[in-house]
Design goal:
This protein is an alpha/beta fold. The chain is built from nine helices and eight strands. Bound molecules: BIS(adenosine)-5'-pentaphosphate. BIS(adenosine)-5'-pentaphosphate binds next to helix 1, helix 2, helix 3, helix 6 and strand 6.
Length: about 210
Amino acid sequence: MNVILLGFPGAGKGTQAKVLEGKYGFVHISTGDLIRKEVASKSELGERLSEIIKNGSLVSDEIVTEILIKNLNGKTQNIVFDGFPRTLRQAESLDNYLREQGKKIDEVVLIELPEEEVLKRLTSRRVCKLCGAIYNIYSEDFKDFCVKCGGQLITRSDDTLQSAKRRLDVFREETKPLLSYYGSTIGVKKIDGGKTIEEVSSSIAEVLKL
Ligand code: AP5
């Protein structure tokens, strides 16, 4: 089964995609992570992408689709897409790519969360520099190091209030139309992202019949 997780930046897509990967064996593909990897490599492309993500804009459809397909590495099944597609053109490219392989998107899950909560979560997020684990300074068991690998926790360059607000605007303009795109075909399953991480995971497992 191929699944797309949609939702505002900070709604919990990455957190839940990691649960689907760890508990149910999905392949987790996050275009945000792939782009940050390119930035960390200090390649010429990475330098250009760094500026784009820092101010909360979208990377071009051509570049991000190329990065995605390269990293899918021929995989076409049991994928959880986190942060892709983000525009109608990306959705069409993904449909075409999967169709050529005789596959499709089976489920689309929207994690809903009010804007104020989204902004709070983004500006309080920390991520492990080494393994990418996601944390939040407000969670009860927060430590100032990664409990999974001991790595240093950092704040993402786009987790400033200014960039977070811009990303919400970009979501409304570019990504929200995907709700009609998928809504009129395979349907969109809505989940309340305001509950605990475990409760959200259970709701997702339930709608995906896992
Ligand atoms: P990307 O990395 O995809 O960022 P995003 O979509 O903005 O999503 P986030 O990673 O910010 O949030 P999330 O929903 O994964 O939430 P998380 O689980 O971390 O993209 C970054 C940039 O790359 C984009 O802005 C763009 O420039 C570029 N890009 C990427 N893909 C692209 C594409 N397809 N096209 C063009 N450009 C692209 O959780 C957030 C926080 O909340 C954490 O602290 C977490 O611990 C906490 N949290 C999670 N769940 C809960 C819960 N239930 N209760 C309490 N806290 C929780």
